[in-house]
Write a structure and sequence with these properties.
10-stranded antiparallel beta sheet; 5 helices; alpha+beta
């Protein structure tokens, strides 16, 4: 740039005056400007070149680091593969040993299976024989049970001897169960007392309804095992279908007029058998049976049976006393009561060998 400027200034002088012409000045300025641009451009190119080398150096460094990491990972992977191979070798050895053991076990299992099959056949034959024997024993025991039951009935008969009952009769002017004359005598009397034969309240011959209910009532008893379906329906009182039926005879009554509207009657009476079933004759036969008591027809409405005591035994002594109490849940219709006899009423059931 300098030599060009000097040459230009020298060659472009005025020939006559020796001074630089205007164009020589202009050329010199342009050469100077172009030189400055060249310097700036060279500086920029140097900067760009240096930056490019720095970036490439950084990238080479990162690449080297990645290659180093890859090589390290490859080394670790190779080490893991070697460990895995050693583990596989051990596993393969253990597996081969296990297969050998399983083969031995399979041989032993086959031997045991053949032995068990043989034992199973033997057991089947034994079980078949035991079942046949059990059925035979069951048949024998069943027959013995029937024989013991029949023998028990023969050696432990339980005749019903008598009963004691307590009833309550309401007194109502609108009810025709008692004669009006007897009702008037009761309502005109005050106090709680027993009606005796000499009492003014004793029913007279002209009062047959009161005399029959208070002095000569007749009750019917039915025993059935298994029970008839009497609850919720009409009671089966037919004597030709019941197992055992009885009726009271020769009653003795004790009468208490507790109020002008209520009579309590205490009845003792003997029992006469109307029908007897040989399968219902002992105390054991009574368990689960149904006792049905029919009070006389024509009694006042809302008549209630309070309690009943049945005495079993022979002529010389009483062997069993059955005491029962009744509630509205035991009522069947207006003139019957039913109760299923269980251990709660009869006690513990006696054994056949006793």
């Amino acid at each position: 740039m300098i030599s060009g400027a000097i040459g230009t200034l020298t060659d472009t002088r005025d020939k006559t005056t020796g001074l630089p012409t205007p164009w020589s000045r202009r050329l010199a300025a342009m050469i100077i400007v172009s030189g400055m641009l060249a310097i700036v451009t060279q500086a920029v190119e140097s900067y760009i070149h240096n930056e490019s080398e720095r970036v490439e150096k950084h990238q080479r460094q990162l690449s080297d680091e990645r290659v180093a990491m890859i090589l390290e990972d490859a080394r670790l992977a190779a080490s893991g593969i070697a460990d895995a191979r050693r583990t596989q070798d051990k596993t393969l050895s253990a597996t081969q040993e296990t297969v050998s053991n399983l083969t031995s076990l399979q041989v032993r299992a086959d031997q045991l299976d053949r032995g068990m099959r043989s034992q199973q056949k033997t057991l089947r034959r034994t079980v078949g024989g035991v079942q046949v024997t059990a059925r035979s024993i069951q048949t024998v025991l069943s027959a013995q049970g029937v024989q013991l039951e029949a023998l028990y009935r023969l050696t432990h008969p339980l005749p019903i001897m008598s009963i004691v009952m307590v009833l309550r009769y309401p007194i109502d002017d609108q009810d025709s169960a008692f004669e009006p004359t007897w009702i008037k005598r009761v309502q005109s009397t005050t106090g709680d007392f027993e009606v005796a034969q000499t009492s003014p309240l004793e029913p007279e011959v002209s009062e047959p309804s009161a005399r029959w209910l208070l002095r000569t009532p007749e009750f019917h008893f039915t025993l059935n095992n298994p029970p008839f379906e009497t609850r919720g329906g009409y009671p089966h009182m037919a004597e030709n279908t019941a197992q055992r039926t009885f009726k009271t005879v020769d009653p003795w009554t004790n009468i208490h007029v507790t109020s002008p509207n209520l009579v309590e009657v205490y009845v003792e009476a003997k029992l006469v058998s109307l029908r007897t079933d040989p399968n219902l004759v002992s105390l054991r036969d009574l368990y689960g049976s149904e006792l049905l008591i029919s009070i006389p027809h024509g009694v006042p409405k809302k008549t209630s049976l309070v309690s009943c005591q049945i005495l079993f035994g022979g002529r010389q002594s009483t062997t069993q006393i059955l005491e029962l109490s009744f509630s509205d849940n035991d009522r069947l219709g207006s003139a019957s009561y039913a109760k299923i006899l269980t251990e709660a009423e009869l006690g513990v059931r006696p054994l056949l060998n006793q």
